[in-house]
Design brief:
The protein is an all-beta fold. About 0% of the residues lie in helices and about 50% in strands. The relative contact order is 0.33.
Length: about 120
């Protein structure tokens, strides 16, 4: 089971980015749990959005600005991030869970939002 996030970059505050999460090594169907997480410098990793049991959840900071979507045929999930703020600066990761222990975080993708 492997998920790899990509699509990060440098963007000005108020801008948008779409992150991708490519899956390999397992069946990627409608039931697949997908979570997006981020870790800012000096902070703990936190959940941003998650799809599970037909429902998509968002953190308070992400609600209204971020949208999780997926294309099962491409085995890819996405995180559309709009109206980005400097506090969104972090390394973003995806994982096949919403919470709990996970040992295969990968390198993630860096999002930097300038003010």
């Amino acid at each position: 089971v492997q998920l790899q996030a990509s699509g990060g970059g440098l963007v000005q505050a108020g801008g948008s980015l779409r992150l991708s999460c490519a899956a390999s090594g397992f069946t990627f169907d409608d039931d697949q749990v997908i979570g997006w997480f981020r870790q800012a410098p000096g902070k703990e990793r936190e959940g941003v959005s998650c799809f599970s049991d037909g429902t998509t959840y968002y953190s308070t900071s992400a609600k209204g600005r971020f949208t999780l979507s997926r294309d099962n045929a491409k085995r890819t999930a996405y995180l559309q991030m709009n109206n980005l703020k400097p506090e969104d600066t972090a390394v973003y990761y995806c994982a096949p869970l919403c919470a709990g222990k996970y040992d295969h975080w990968g390198q993630g993708t860096l999002v930097t939002v300038s003010s």
